C-alpha cells in the first residue's frame, strides 16, 4: 500500500513539473525574447554551468539557508511552546512579537553587516531574524489551541509540567511546525537572494545578478533553476521528516 | 442496604460548594453538596446539563482545588495527583499521536514504571478490555466504543481504587453503550474498586449506580440520594423494580 502511494506521489510530482515546463515553453515561444530562453537551452546551460562554478554557489547558498532554518527552528520551537502554554509569558511577549513581526526585517541588513561583517554570518542572521517569527507564531498558536480535555486527562494520570510538554505539547505542535517550516523555507530563499545581491561575491543570488548584469539570460535561468532545485530539496526533506515524525497523520 | 455500617468510606463530601469566575462575576456551580460512597461501591451522579456534575468529578479527582467544604478521599483530604485515582473524561483524552499500546502505557510512563513491568501491565489490561489485537493502531483508526475501552484500559493500568468517569458512554450508539456498561460492571465486580460516574441517562444511572445522587438545576444541589442495592444482579435491567426506579428518578429530575 505504501509502495503504491509512493508511485502515485512521484507520478503527481512528475506531472506538475511537466506542466510547469510546458507553460514555460509556450510563454518563451510566444515572447520570442532573449530575456526568456526556452527551457531546453536553459537546462543545457544549467548542466554546463554546474562544473564551471555553479555547484559552489549552490552549496554556499544551501549552507546559508539550511543553517538559518535550523537556527530559527531551534530558537522558535521552545519559545513558541512556552508562550503558547504559559499565559503570563505570552502576555509579556505578545506586544513585542506583534510590533516586530510586521517590520520588514531586510532593512536591518546594513546594521547586521556593520555588526557581523559582510560574510555568511550577517546573511544567516538576517534570514533567521525573518523566519523566526514565521515559525514562532504558528507554533505558539498550536500549543495554545491544545484541547483542555486532553491536558486534564494527562494531568489526571499524574503528569507534571514536564510530562505535559513531553507527551502532549511537543507532538501536538509537530504538524504545525512542519507547515510553518514549508512556508518559512520559501521566505528564507527569497531573503537569501536579497542578501546575496548586496556586497556579495558568492551564492546563487550573486550568480544570478551577475549573469543578469552581463545580459547572460541563459546563465541567469540556470541560476533560477538552481534556486528552484534548492527549494524543492528542502520541501522533499520536510515531507520525509513529516512521515518520520508524524506517522499518526498517515494512517 | 448497601450503606453497610462499619464499612470504610472511600469518598466523603461534606457541604461542598464550588464557584468559578466568569467575566468578573462569581458564578456558583455547586452549593452545599454532601454525600458519601463506601469503599468498593458504585455511584452515579445524575442531573440536568450544567448542574455541575463534571465540576464535582474534577473536585474528586483533585484537579480542581478551589472549593469550600470538606472532601475526603480514602480518609485523606483530596489532593492533586493521588496515585490511585483514575479519571476518564468525556472525550476520552486519548493522544492521537500515540498508538493504543502507548496510550494505555502513558500513566505508567509518567509514574516511572517501565520495561517489563509496563509491558506486562499494558498487555493484561488490553486483554481485559478485549483490545490486544488493536495495540498497534492509532486512536483515529478505532471506533468510538473501542476508544472508550482504551481509555478504560489506560485507567485500569494504574490499578486504581477510585475510578471517576465523566459521561463515559454518552457519545456511543445504544448497542455499544449497553455492551460497555456491562463490561464496566464486570470489571467492577472483579476488582471492586470504587466507581463514580457522571451521566445524564436515567437507565445508565440505575444500571451502574448503587448510590444515585440526583442533582438540581444550576447551581447543583443534592435533590435526593437513592439507594439501588441490586446493581450487578443478573438480568436486573429487565426487572419491574428497575423500571419502577426509572419512573421514580424521572419524577425527581423532571418534577
TrEMBL record, chain A:
Pfam hit, one: BPD_transp_1
CDD domains for the chain: TM_PBP2 (cd06261)
Any one GO biological process: transmembrane transport
Main location: membrane
Subcellular locations according to the entry: Cell membrane
Membrane-topology annotation of the record: Multi-pass membrane protein
Keywords: Cell membrane, Membrane, Transmembrane, Transmembrane helix, Transport
GO cellular component, one term: plasma membrane
Transmembrane segments: 12-32, 65-84, 96-118, 124-143, 220-241
Residue stretches making up the ABC transmembrane type-1 domain: 58-242
PROSITE patterns to which the protein is assigned, alphabetical: ABC_TM1 (PS50928)
Superkingdom field: Bacteria
Family, similarity comment: Belongs to the binding-protein-dependent transport system permease family.
Protein name, as recorded: NitT/TauT family transport system permease protein
Natural source organism: Desulfoscipio geothermicus DSM 3669
UniProtKB/TrEMBL annotation, chain B:
Domain of life: Bacteria
GO MF entries: ATP binding; ATP hydrolysis activity
Pfam families: ABC_tran
Residue stretches making up the ABC transporter domain: 11-242
Alphabetized UniProt keyword annotations: ATP-binding, Nucleotide-binding, Transport
PANTHER family membership: ALIPHATIC SULFONATES IMPORT ATP-BINDING PROTEIN SSUB, TAURINE IMPORT ATP-BINDING PROTEIN-RELATED
Entry protein name: NitT/TauT family transport system ATP-binding protein
Biological classification of the source: Bacteria, Bacillati, Bacillota, Clostridia, Eubacteriales
